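Protein record

Derive C-alpha cells from sequence
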Amino acid sequence: MAPLSNLSVHIETLDSYADILRRSPVDLYWNCLFALPFWLRAVCDHLGATGDPCIVTVRDGDRIVGIAPLAIEHKTARFLGSHEVCDYQDVVCVPDTGIPAVAAVLEHLAAQGIQELDLRTLRPDATILQALRSLLPEQVEAGTTQEDVTFEADLPGDWEAYLMQLNGKQRHEVRRKVRRLENHGPFAYRRVAENSPALSAAIDTFIDLFRRNRSDKAAFMSDGMAAYFHDLIHGAAGEGLLRLYFLDVGRQPVATVLCFDYRGVRYLYNSGYDERFDALSVGVLSKVFSINAAIDAGCRRYDFLKGAEVYKKRIGGHEVPLYRLRVTL
C-alpha cells in the first residue's frame, strides 16, 4: 500500500455517514457491527446520544481511509451511541491505516480543545486500541481497565463437530435437554423472514417474551426502548443482517433469540422466554438451536456478546475481556 501523504479531516452527519457506507470502497473495513450507520441512527433517534455527534472522517486526498463515529460532551470525546446497547465500539479504517488515521483524529480533537478520550467498550482486537497502543503507549497502559467480558465460540463445519468441542458434561446436558423437548411433543424452531409482512408483529412477540420472568428486563424494555428495538430490527432487516428466531411448543411461541449475522459472525443480541416452560429449558435451547442454524449458514464464529451469564460457558463460549480506555490529549 502507498504511504498516506495528503491527510485531511472532515465532519459528517448521520446521513452522510450512511452515504459513505452505501458507496464504500471495498478496502474500507467496517469491522464493528455496532458502528454501522443504521445502528447508530436507531440509538440517536430513540435513546439519544451523550454529547453532540462528531463523526470524523480522515481522507487521503479524495479517499476515505478512516472514520471515527464520536460524540463530544464538554471537553471529552466518546463513541457515538451507548455502551448499554452497543456491545462493542470501534473506528472504521482501511487495513494498515489505523495508526495514521487515528493520529489525524487525535490531532483534530486536540485542536478543537478536546482534552480527553473516554472509549468503551473495546475488544482486545479493536482497531483504535491497537493504534493508540502505538501512538500513546504509556497512557494506554495506565488508562485501560477491564470493564466487562464477552463470550464467543468458534464454529466448525457441522453440528456434531460443534458438540465435540464441548466437554463431556456440557455435551451430555445439551443432548439431554434436546431429547426432553423432543419427548414432550411437537415443537418447531423458526426464523422470521426479513421481508415478512408479519415482522412487526413478530417484534412485538419478541418484546413480550423479553419482558417476562425478570423485573429488571421488564424495566429495561421501556416504551422508548421498545421503539428502539422496532427501528433497529427493521434497519437490520433492510441490511440483510437480521436473524430473529422463535421456539414454538405446540403452536405457541415460548422462547426467542434476536441475532445478527455480520461478516461471518452470528451475534446473539438479546433473548426472552416464557418461564411457564422453564422445565423444558426453552431459554437455553433457543440459543443452542441458533448455534446450529449459524453452523448451517456457514458462520465461522458465534458471539454471545457482553455479559458473564453462566449459560454462555456451558454451551461452548470462551471468555474475552472488554476494556474501557481513558486517555488525556
Observations:
- The chain has a mean pLDDT of 95.
- The chain is about 40% helix and 30% strand.
- The first strand starts at residue 7 and ends at 12.
